[in-house]
Design a protein that fits this description.
The chain is an alpha+beta fold and 363 residues long. The protein has 6 helices and 25 strands.
Length: 363
């Protein structure tokens, strides 16, 4: 009777304690793969929306969960599509391939001098999308939008790009009288970063946040919002769309799934490298023509997926679509709308948890 009692206790213990633990492991894996995941943000490119040390919650299911099968990318149906202003988490497109010498030990020796050059000619090695660095940026350009850059200003669909309260932006404030300039110059100096005063021209230039400027009466001033693009020689030729945006004074179209365009030399100059890298095109693309695998000329091309133009909220100090162009839809991981928790960086004098940023809403 005692043995039967012990067996009954063991069974109860298994069902009440161990079974829930065993079931929790696959449940956690399923949630992480298909619904939610998290990433640590170590840089300040999204200040002050996301600050270094934040651990952000990434919701995959909203846009549809991305998964891979036999080297192809699929996505489950989502709740909605990407919207302008969303905080998008994606695998950075600039890491689609690398050129490096891959060295490894031979199976019969553990010595470092017995190595092989797996890639002696340093040819590009393809990096699967899931293993590329995850970035988080704000969506400003949607598929089908036109983007124009003129006089250090960016226009989306002929409208100046939208600014959000937490965005750090270079702004030039031109006052129309010396009284207003003298009244607000000290407060502007305290509110901004890298502030420069031009007394002769009644001008203040610096990096400000929109919400800080709202506390200052700028009715007697003109505000010029500056969005600088990098010098064209700092953008590699493979990022042809980004280079064209820097050099050209005409609007550029962000490709969308189903967009069909005539194949011309101008079209290939802008979109040829993008098609070759992200559209799984197996034919041949040259400066003047595009041919399929059988060698026949292609007169019209239809894009296979959507693309997005994304910038960091800390505009003067962010590496984003200005440097490497568009984000393909198959690179998107999900959206971020909240932090999970946050901690000061290791080099901070007070390396502690930021309690006010636990489950903090990101706008």
């Amino acid at each position: 009777m005692q043995n039967q009692g012990k067996d009954h206790i063991r069974k109860q213990l298994f069902w009440k304690v161990f079974l829930p633990v065993i079931l929790a492991i696959p449940a956690a894996v399923i949630i992480k793969i298909f619904f939610l995941t998290s990433y640590h943000v170590p840089t300040a490119s999204m200040n002050s929306t996301i600050i270094p040390g934040d651990h952000i919650l990434v919701e995959k299911y909203i846009l549809g969960t991305r998964f891979f099968f036999r080297n192809r990318i699929y996505r489950t149906p989502g709740i909605r599509s990407v919207r302008k202003g969303d905080l998008l988490v994606f695998n950075v497109p600039k890491e689609d391939s690398i050129s490096q010498r891959i060295r490894y030990y031979t199976s019969h020796s553990g010595k470092a001098d017995h190595v092989h050059d797996h890639n002696p000619e340093e040819k590009p090695q393809f990096i699967p999308i899931p293993f590329r660095t995850p970035f988080v940026k704000r969506v400003l350009g949607l598929p089908g939008d036109t983007v124009l850059h003129q006089n250090d200003q960016v226009w989306i669909n002929q409208n100046p790009i939208r600014f959000f309260a937490e965005i750090h932006q270079e702004i030039v404030i031109q006052f129309d009288n010396s009284e207003s300039f003298d009244q607000w110059k000290n407060k502007l100096y305290r509110e901004g970063e890298r502030v420069q005063m031009d007394h002769a021209n009644l001008m203040v230039k610096g990096i400000f946040r929109e919400k800080n400027l709202s506390r200052i009466d700028t009715t007697g001033a003109i505000l010029h919002y500056k969005t600088h693009l990098p010098p064209v020689d700092q953008v590699p030729e493979i990022f042809s769309w980004a280079r064209k945006l820097i050099m050209d004074s005409d609007p550029l179209i962000i490709p969308y799934k189903g967009w069909t365009s005539a194949v011309t030399p101008d079209f290939l100059e802008i979109y040829g490298p993008l098609i070759r890298r992200f559209e799984n095109f197996e034919g041949n693309i040259d400066a003047a023509f595009m041919k399929d695998t059988s060698g026949r000329n292609i007169e019209y091309y239809t894009f296979q997926q959507n693309y997005y133009w994304c910038l960091g909220d800390n505009r003067p100090f962010s590496i984003d679509s200005r440097s490497w162009g568009l984000v393909p839809e198959d690179h998107i991981i999900g959206l971020s709308r909240r932090t999970i928790w946050s901690q000061n960086p290791p080099d901070h004098p007070k390396n502690k948890i930021r309690w006010n940023r636990i489950y903090h809403r990101l706008k």
